[in-house]
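Suppose a colleague, Dr. K., hands you the sequence of a protein chain of 177 amino acids and asks what its three-dimensional shape might be. Before reaching for any lab equipment, you can write down a predicted structure in token form. Begin with the sequence itself:
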Amino acid sequence: MGLRWVVSLAAMVSISACTGPIETRVSSSGVALSGGHTILDEQHASPSDILLQARALTLSKLADRGFTLTPTGAQKLDVTVSERPANLLISAGAEQHKVVLTSPKPKKPLQSCADTEFSLVVRLTNVADGADLYQGRAAEFHCKAALADVLPFLVDAALADLGSPKGEHIIKRRGLD
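The predicted structure, expressed as tokens, is then:
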């Protein structure tokens, strides 16, 4: 009985090391948007498969909210996706005026692999004058998950504030780390 308990406990610990609370860092700005807007149907030059997937997921979520894709749309949609090692410090500017854009993420105790940061930005602008209407950014750190598996969560988070931009905040969920 004691050996069974130890084996069960070891299995639970090893499984829980890969799943856990995931913090989605969200930043949104712009004006409150609701359905009825039209999005310009554009052709993009040879986008990657992951960018095609991100754009398709974003357009699907926007369609669910009443947005339509047309050849003469009034809004332009830009979707960007990035992936980087999470242990990098990214800064901009000269030494005296350096601004840290992204701080490195410390490794968790007992973590068996290096984290990667996945990020998605959705931006809607007016075609007529280029005015920014909405920008939503969602980013997560992952050790084992693939970007393609995380994209639906990032799209949901980036568009969550479309009706009322909230600035910077964190959404927590459970999933594969």
